[in-house]
Write a structure and sequence with these properties.
This protein is α+β, with helices and mostly antiparallel strands and about 450 residues long. It is built from 14 helices and 13 strands. A nine-stranded antiparallel beta sheet has the order 1-2-3-4-7-11-10-8-9, with helices on both faces. The chain has a two-stranded antiparallel ribbon with strand order 5-6. Helix 8 packs antiparallel against helix 10. The longest helix has 18 residues. The radius of gyration is 50 Å and the shape is elongated.
Length: about 450
């Protein structure tokens, strides 16, 4: 297994949640960052800024638990070849936490009610462990629903593009708690998971697929964005991951629009990874133009021809890409009524009419079928007990017997049918056998 893969496994195993260390009390460094991030639209701020920043001292117990878990994981045999690099990673965790900060900013005359700024520091491993603390992001929810997730990204040696995203974002196992009743943009861990999904192979492949297989055309929303020259220009000024040198991938994502059906809003996120001092203005301008364009984006109509995998209103896409028709409750009721009206007229009987018909039909048996009473069935059972033949039962009678063989004789018989002895006569006496004649020897 590669060292980069082992490094990623270790980072995932300790499950660092930056939001566990965020407080509303800022350090001087964090205050300076937020002042720079909010200065560009200071005239549009209409309320109190709600800042947040990482702090280890106020969360020392949680930090010690994290280190203890990391040390136990580090003892595993599989990490022996990169143990030094993993220790470097752990040594940079305090700086990563402290350099994470942001603010919720109430604004006026802009597409959002609130816009949120935050830093996006990362610890990466590329031959050695490095902390990248310059990336920043702006994000907020607009009161418009674009219908599907839309990516903005860059492909090396190609023009930047917008692409539709099919399916669910790769949030690295993160599950959004739907019971939390606050704007999704204010859930730090959720937004963090979306920003991390920019580096997912699944996300980048959707961008490349739309470029290669669909020639960047076919999705109504993306087609609309591609015609907005000011939008494309402002987003193209963003410094992406491969332009900053953070990744060697030729395909990168640096902006996203995520529809939130439960709130009927759309979460817009833009990220810049440059080290220039003007990165705040570039990233905010891209966020502003992207949000404004999303408010004017068309909703795909039922008659539009979707690209492969695109889900149109009134349909549900299966995992295999097949679109199934979906009906509302009202549509189903209308169809049921129309089908009832189209049925031929059939007679309808009341309960009394049915009872009357039953009585008129008698037993209700079909014609030609005989019915037996209980007594008839008993007689039939007796007949069948004789082997299936209709043999009358034997009645005892005082009959004389043949005096020769004992056979019962009927009145009027003259002789026994068995031994032919005349009736009334005794058996004839048997003739005695002649004694043997004496031999000549005995006479002598």
């Amino acid at each position: 297994m590669s060292e980069v893969k082992l490094f990623s496994m270790f980072v995932e195993s300790i499950q660092l949640n930056i939001d566990d260390f965020l407080v509303d009390e800022l350090t001087e460094m964090q205050k300076e960052i937020i002042d720079e991030a909010t200065f560009i639209f200071k005239e549009n701020i209409i309320g109190d800024i709600k800042p947040f920043g990482g702090n280890i001292k106020k969360n020392e117990e949680k930090y010690n638990e994290l280190l203890k878990l990391a040390e136990e994981e580090l003892k595993l045999e599989k990490y022996k070849d990169i143990k030094k690099q993993l220790k470097d990673y752990l040594s940079k965790l305090p700086e990563l936490i402290i350099k994470t900060c942001g603010a919720k900013i109430p604004v006026k005359e802009l597409p959002w009610v609130d816009i949120i700024f935050r830093t996006v520091p990362r610890i990466v491993y590329d031959e050695k462990v490095k902390l990248l603390d310059k990336p920043i992001a702006y994000y907020g929810e607009i009161k418009c629903f674009i219908g599907r997730t839309t990516l903005y990204g860059k492909i090396k040696n190609q023009e930047p593009l917008f692409a539709p995203f099919t399916g669910n974002l790769d949030l690295g196992g993160y599950k959004l708690d739907s019971s939390v009743n606050i704007p999704k943009s204010e859930i730090f861990s959720y937004v963090n998971a979306i920003i991390n999904s920019f580096d997912s192979a699944i996300t980048k492949s959707q961008l490349a697929k739309y470029h290669e297989e669909f020639s960047r055309h076919g999705d109504p929303v993306c087609d609309f964005f591609m015609k907005e020259e000011e939008l494309k220009e402002s987003l193209s000024n963003l410094t992406s991951a491969y332009e900053s040198g953070r990744t060697k991938s030729d395909t990168v994502v640096c902006g996203i629009a995520v529809p939130i059906p439960s709130d009927k809003t759309t979460l817009i996120i833009t990220i810049d990874e440059s080290e220039d001092s003007n990165r705040y203005s570039k990233c905010f301008e891209a966020q502003l133009k992207f949000s404004a364009a999303s408010c004017n984006a068309p909703v795909p109509s039922m008659g539009s021809a979707p690209v492969q995998g695109q889900q149109t209103p009134g349909t549900v896409s299966t995992p295999g890409g097949q679109e199934l028709k979906v009906w509302s409750a009202e549509e189903l009721a209308e169809q049921a009524q129309s089908r009832m009206n189209a049925q031929p007229e059939m007679p309808i009987w009341t309960e009394e009419e049915l009872a009357k018909q039953q009585s008129e039909r008698g037993t209700g048996l079909p014609d030609g079928i005989e019915m037996w009473t209980e007594e008839e069935l008993l007689d039939l059972a007796k007949q069948r007990s004789g082997g299936g033949l209709n043999i009358p039962e034997w009645e005892d009678q005082d009959l004389p017997e043949c005096k020769n063989c004992g056979y019962a004789l009927r009145s009027g018989w003259e002789k026994c049918p068995v031994c032919e002895t005349p009736v009334g006569e005794s058996a004839p006496e048997k003739e005695e056998e002649n004694p043997e004649e004496p031999s000549e020897d005995s006479e002598e």
